[in-house]
Specification:
CATH architecture of one domain: Alpha-Beta Complex
CATH class of one domain: Alpha Beta
Bound molecules: 2-acetamido-2-deoxy-beta-D-glucopyranose, calcium ion
CATH superfamily of one domain: Gamma Fibrinogen, chain A, domain 1
Strand content: 5-15%
Order of helices and strands: HHHHHEEEHEEHEEEEHE
Number of strands: 10
Length: 484
């Protein structure tokens, strides 16, 4: 820019100078030839002076001046030129001043233009900046509005949740009071049940109060102590549902035949017992069809092949309380329950099985800590029905303790057939069917209580004296196999 301005100035100066020079040269043209035009004009200028020479004769003395050069300007012309120069200088000065003024103006103008340009640029920048800021502001405003909306929603939700919480708290209090009422009712019912039980026993004893059988005194070794309440509840609920369960496979404990056990038969038998099944090559525990000697009836039985080389015929099994064992003579004579779950194989079947040869009995017991023990009797068989299916046991061996030998030689007693040595009916006290004595050291067909230690007026749980009379076992199995 600056350069351009300067070059412009220079051009201007040059032109001005040339103009003024030309003017002055025109004025002086007649007297002085401008050296620029001499070459052009010299040959044709008629006013141009020629140099004149004076030739001297050598014999003669020099009397006149020697002309060395006659080109010097004439005095007239000299004067004119000086005046001209003064004129020109003045004009030049004047013009220089003008130029300086112009220069100043130009400079100012250029600065102004620059400033203008800068300002314009700045303004443009400002505009875009302002636009940007405006957009940002808009954005912020929109965002703020959204936030406030969200905040309001959140507040609403918090309020709602708080009110919900209060509602739930009040409902919880309501439920708590209702629970307290129910607990009171349950306690009252429990008392009532006990009273009714006593009354029932009294009426069974025809007005006389039958004395309770002696309790098994053995103290269990590992009693869980914190589940008494659980047992109480369990017991009460059982008292209500006993004999009226609809979903149970065993519809009624009295007289009604249970539906045939279901399951898949894996037998290609029939076999005489599970030992024969095992000998035929079957190694999978499961349900098999058995046919005892001199009988044309088939028996469904569970063969246990996973224990001690297998071949065990299961006579009874308890494990989850799914089947009611407080049943009459007909039930115990036949069979009940589910072959693949809790069941009783039936006294007649057991009798027919056990008379086929020499069998030993294995009783497997598991407590609620998962500990398994067993009691084995070297021989086992029952006598016929007219002998009340009297129990005949061999000698004990095992780690469960011998709680069964005291039942040896006893007939089978149910709630409707009392063959025990006790004045009352042991089946009523122990709530099962068994070879009761008076009443005995073990009750494996008793009530299945959850948790082990149970609270009951009588010892009616599934107990094995060595585990304690008030400790109900978790699972039990009675199995027979021919003596090796
Ligand atoms: C809060 O509860 C009111 C009714 O009690 C309901 O209309 C509103 O939609 C609820 N708000 C939320 C955020 O759940
Ligand atoms: C329980 O029985 C007692 C009296 O034996 C009685 O005062 C109380 O109200 C009964 N409670 C319930 C919840 O029935
Ligand atoms: C038991 O065996 C006898 C023959 O000894 C037979 O008549 C009877 O039907 C058998 N009972 C069962 C339930 O198989
Ligand atoms: Ca009796």
């Amino acid at each position: 820019m600056q350069g351009l301005v300067w070059s412009l100035c220079a051009l201007l100066c040059l032109s001005l100078w040339e103009e003024s020079y030309c003017r002055s040269s025109r004025e002086t043209q007649r007297t002085k030839e401008p050296f620029l035009l001499r070459s052009r004009r010299a040959p044709i200028d008629p006013n141009s002076k020629q140099c004149s020479y004076t030739f001297l004769v050598p014999e003669q003395r020099i009397t006149g001046p020697i002309c060395a050069s006659t080109t010097g300007p004439e005095p007239d012309k000299d004067r004119v030129t000086r005046m001209d120069i003064a004129d020109v200088r003045e004009v030049l000065n004047k013009q220089r001043r003008e130029i300086e003024t112009l220069q100043l103006v130009v400079d100012v103008d250029g600065n102004l233009v620059n400033e203008m340009k800068l300002l314009r640029k700045e303004s443009r920048n400002m505009n875009s900046r302002v636009t940007q800021l405006y957009m940002q502001l808009l954005h912020e405003i929109i965002r703020k509005r959204d936030n406030s909306l969200e905040l309001a929603q959140l507040e609403n939700r918090v309020l709602n949740v708080t009110s919900e919480m209060m509602r739930l708290a009040s409902r919880y209090k309501d439920l708590e009071s209702r629970f307290a009422t129910m607990a009171g009712v349950v306690n009252n019912q429990s008392i009532l049940i006990t009273a009714l039980e006593e009354q029932c026993l009294r009426s069974l004893g025809r007005g006389e109060l039958a004395p309770a059988p002696p309790l098994v005194q053995a103290v269990p070794q590992n009693i869980p102590v914190d589940n008494r309440f659980t047992n109480e509840i369990q017991r009460n609920s059982r008292a209500f549902t006993r004999g009226s369960r609809k979903n149970s496979p065993t519809v009624s404990p009295f007289g009604i035949e249970p539906p045939p056990p279901q399951g898949t038969l894996t037998s290609d038998g029939p076999f005489k017992d599970c030992f024969q099944v095992r000998q035929a090559g079957h190694t999978t525990s499961g349900m098999y069809l058995l046919k005892t000697d001199n009988s044309d009836r088939l028996i469904q039985a569970w063969c246990e092949h996973g224990l001690d080389n297998g071949g065990w015929t299961v006579l009874q099994r308890r494990r989850d309380g799914s089947v009611n064992f407080f049943r009459n003579w007909e039930n115990y004579k036949a069979s009940f329950g589910n072959i693949d779950g809790e069941h009783w194989l039936g006294l007649e079947n057991i009798y027919n099985l056990s008379k086929q040869g020499d069998y030993k009995l294995m009783i497997e017991l598991e407590d609620w800590a998962g500990k398994k023990v067993y009691a084995e009797y070297s021989s086992f068989h029952l006598e016929a029905e007219n002998q009340g299916y009297r129990l005949r046991l061999g000698t004990y061996q095992g780690n469960a303790g011998d709680s069964f030998t005291s039942h040896n030689g006893k007939q089978f007693t149910t709630l409707d057939r009392d063959k025990d040595a006790f004045t009352g009916n042991c089946a009523h006290f122990h709530k099962g069917g068994w070879w009761y004595n008076a009443c005995g050291q073990t009750n494996l067909n008793g009530v299945w209580y959850s948790g082990g230690v149970y609270r009951s007026k009588f010892q009616d749980g599934i107990f094995w004296a060595d585990g304690g009379g008030f400790y109900s076992l978790k699972s039990v199995r009675l199995m027979i196999r021919p003596i090796d």
